[in-house]
Amino acid sequence: MAGLPGLNFSGPSRKTVQDLTEGEHEFNIRPNESVYFINCSDSTLSVNSRSAKVSAENLKNCTINVKYSPLTSFVEIVNCDGLHVHLAEGVSVNTMANKKFMFNRDEKNRIATN
After folding, report:
1. Model pTM?
2. Are 45 and 17 in contact (CB under 8 A)?
C-alpha cells in the first residue's frame, strides 16, 4: 500500500555541531531539524530559531541560548560541566546524569545551571 501523498513519516533531520572552542556561535535551525552540540568548550551557542529538539553532550564551560521553545519542548543535557542554559519559556530539561540544577526566573526566561 502506498503512503498518503504529501505526508512525510520520516523523523526530523539532525544538525551536529562539534568541537567548537571559544567565541559566540549562532545557529538558525529549521523547525523539522534537531541540533546536537557535542564536545564544545568555552563557547556561547545560540539557537535563534525554532527547532525540533536541542541536545548537548560533553560540553565544558559553555552557555546555550534557546530563544524559542523546541517542538518537543525539551533540551537534553548529557555529561556536561560548567554549562549555563538560557531557556525560552515552557522548555523542560532532561539530563542523563546525576546533576543538580538551579532554576531562576528572569522575566520570560528560565536559567538552568549545573
Report:
1. 0.72
2. yes
